[in-house]
Amino acid sequence: MSQAVRVIWDDALVSYDFGPGHPLAPVRVELTMALARDLGVLDGAEMGGCVPATDDELALVHKRDYIEAVKAVSRSGRPDLRHGLGTDDNPAFVGVHEAAALVTGATLAAARAVWRGEAEHAVNVAGGLHHAMAATASGFCVYNDPAVAIAWLLSQGASRVAYVDVDVHHGDGVQAMFYDDPRVLTISLHESPRTLFPGTGFPQETGAEGAEGSAVNVALPAGCGDAGWLRAFHAVVPPLLREFAPEVLVTQQGCDSHALDPLANLMLSVDGQRTAYAALHGLAHETAGGRWIAVGGGGYELVRVVPRAWTHLIAEAVGTPVDPRTPTPGSWRALVEERLEETAPLTMTDGRDASWREISEGYDPADATDRAIMATRNAVFPLHGLDPMP
């Protein structure tokens, strides 16, 4: 059982809404919180509220003129294409600043709870907007809440923060904001930029001069499933976290790596994702003194994937994992029918065996996933004094 765990939630977080038909539908976090509540997962957590991030907090990573530009769009609803607002990915809407600042404030509330010792772990499933850049919106993301939280931790005296991003898309915004900062280790496991947005995240991206090895990218081939993904994770993430020894572990838990996700091409199951959450939880205790901040991220299969995946995440953080065979509550299935007129999954599992083999058991140069693993290890491990060979 974990020590105190803070789950950040405010019903107003669903105001981060780009409108009908947009993939990032806020109903996904509404259904997540409802499922966690109906399963009793939230009974073991402290519920915490949030307030919008201030301009000064946003300016820890964002340009002041960008914040003012977002505010102008927020007042008028008119596009500002120079700052990435008004595109298909990031439509302009009245209230966009307030909605995005609240999401960021929720992740900051999680960071404060962990840094101040009020909670060992903290979760904000509405967060994880990792594509936003210092002066532009990108990839459904207006303000980069994990980057703001990391910068805030540094401002409070943290000397080493590790960020692990398991979203199917490269965590480009967070990497860019700390690419020259050796205090922050960013690790991203994602579908190859050759086949998926944003087109970055090659293994050769390892950090700027003076911060060599601070950026780590595992670019996985389209079609990679549970066994390959977990093999890659365990071949790269634990050795680097053990060597880096962060004071805080921040993780972005995008679940768009699932086989049913409509925007990407990896083939994970909810069971594989649940296994990854357990591994990250264990690494938080092993390498970061238990200090773990987890945020959401991508995930566009709104009923069959996101609510179950992130309910497993919350349950893992709380320390009472949900048995995958557990039936989904009838009350939750009725809510899904009412809100989306869809049939909800009956259990918390996809029925998959999420097992994998360690890379040390044998490297296969003919296997695309193994080649991706070794490309990353060869690029980064020597910079940390680690042997890249399995």
TrEMBL record:
Output the Gene Ontology terms for molecular function. histone deacetylase activity
The question of whether Cell division is a record keyword is answered with: no
Alphabetic keyword roster = Acetoin catabolism
Does the keyword field hold GTP-binding?
no
Query: What positions does the domain Histone deacetylase occupy?
Result: 22-315
Superkingdom is: Bacteria
Annotated pathway, please?
Answer: Ketone degradation; acetoin degradation
GO BP terms, alphabetized: acetoin catabolic process; epigenetic regulation of gene expression
Matching entries from InterPro entries are given as:
AcuC, HDACs, His_deacetylse_dom, His_deacetylse_dom_sf, Ureohydrolase_dom_sf
Q: Which family does it belong to?
A: Belongs to the histone deacetylase family.
Name the UniProt record assigns to this protein: Acetoin utilization protein AcuC
